[in-house]
Amino acid sequence: MRVSVPLIYLKEIPASDMISVLFVDDEPVLVDIGRLFLERVGNFSVTGVESAQKALEMLSEKPFDVIIADYQMPGMTGIDLLRIVRSQYGDIPFILFTGRGREDVARDAINIGANFYVQKGGDPKLQFADIAHKVETAVERRRALIAIKTSEQRFHDIINFLPDATFAINTDGSIIAWNREIERITNTRAEDMIGKWGFAHSIPFYGKRRPMIIDLLLHPDPAFEQIYPSLHREDGMITAEGVLFLNDKKHFFLARSSFLYGPDGKIAGAIESLRDITRQKESEEKLIRVFDHLPLGLQIFVMNKNGHLVCTGGNPASEEITGLGTRCSPGRPIEDVFPGEEGQRICAVSKKVAMEGGKDSIDNLEISLDGSKRHYNVRIFQTYPGEVALIYL
């Protein structure tokens, strides 16, 4: 049965707040003794009522952190009250008072959902000291559970509103989150995915069970990683580009995966987001075609992580015009492409433009190649922060 819990009973209570207690017993003297003792020894605020019916009236008016109820009361027993509380007010802590020799009642109470039971009789101070301890224990447990549920709900809310398709798994590989965008692109509902395991998250994408980068983050597999030539690991994160066919259409995705951590700081799972970069890739392919057929010589240099400007390549015309094709091989420092005094000049200007932006030019640049010297007018401009293009005229 799905229990509908009023929101007032799911409030997250700061640890410093007073614990509100509803004490239910048909013996007014016992209620008064319990109120005096609990409020004296602990951070408790006790409301006493003399019947289960009055207790239900109080619960409908305001929330309580814990209920302490006698079992044997006229009209409605403590067990009956417990059943109603569990069906209408969820998991509010409940402690049942029983008479001695009523182990069957205690057993039923625990089975129905009582947090503790206490037998009446004996030294009242010892008895209420025990109750005070049980109250604090039950409330602390519930607060911790509410905090976890609140944290999980926030996590799911955040994931749901992310613009990228996003899902998460725990360390066992079970799916714990499947957001709205991933529902949209895969036509697969979250309720059909949550809790599934064994690479089930890959089926909507590949039609079969297989690792994705989220699995490679949790369980590295160097051999399998070869299918992702662009895969990159850094600071507990994996990024990779890939191609997926969704609804019979080819899509390019940039996938990112990182660890999820539990309250204890240990790895609890991983999360993966997939950004559709199809339009970007199509634009890049068009630019590459234009780049390759451009009648002007053009070379691209990019700043690497060591702060060196290195060549990423040039178009066919740059080789025909300059003859620098072998020099401007991918990854080669710009100083190797342009050695000598004139080279120092173009290196300095190119680095400045790559980092600061804008454009510059060097006219009548002399390039020595195979014993001969050639002269060019070079236009230099930033194509992206840390990246610069050289055009030869």
Automatic annotation (TrEMBL):
<dbReference type="Pfam" id="PF00072">
    <property type="entry name" value="Response_reg"/>
</dbReference>
<protein>
    <submittedName>
        <fullName>Response regulator</fullName>
    </submittedName>
</protein>
<dbReference type="Pfam" id="PF08448">
    <property type="entry name" value="PAS_4"/>
</dbReference>
<dbReference type="InterPro" id="IPR001789">
    <property type="entry name" value="Sig_transdc_resp-reg_receiver"/>
</dbReference>
<keyword id="KW-0597">Phosphoprotein</keyword>
<dbReference type="InterPro" id="IPR013656">
    <property type="entry name" value="PAS_4"/>
</dbReference>
<dbReference type="InterPro" id="IPR000014">
    <property type="entry name" value="PAS"/>
</dbReference>
<feature type="modified residue" description="4-aspartylphosphate">
    <location>
        <position position="70"/>
    </location>
</feature>
<feature type="domain" description="Response regulatory">
    <location>
        <begin position="20"/>
        <end position="135"/>
    </location>
</feature>
<dbReference type="GO" id="GO:0000160">
    <property type="term" value="P:phosphorelay signal transduction system"/>
</dbReference>
<dbReference type="InterPro" id="IPR035965">
    <property type="entry name" value="PAS-like_dom_sf"/>
</dbReference>
<feature type="domain" description="PAS">
    <location>
        <begin position="151"/>
        <end position="196"/>
    </location>
</feature>
<dbReference type="InterPro" id="IPR050595">
    <property type="entry name" value="Bact_response_regulator"/>
</dbReference>
<dbReference type="InterPro" id="IPR011006">
    <property type="entry name" value="CheY-like_superfamily"/>
</dbReference>
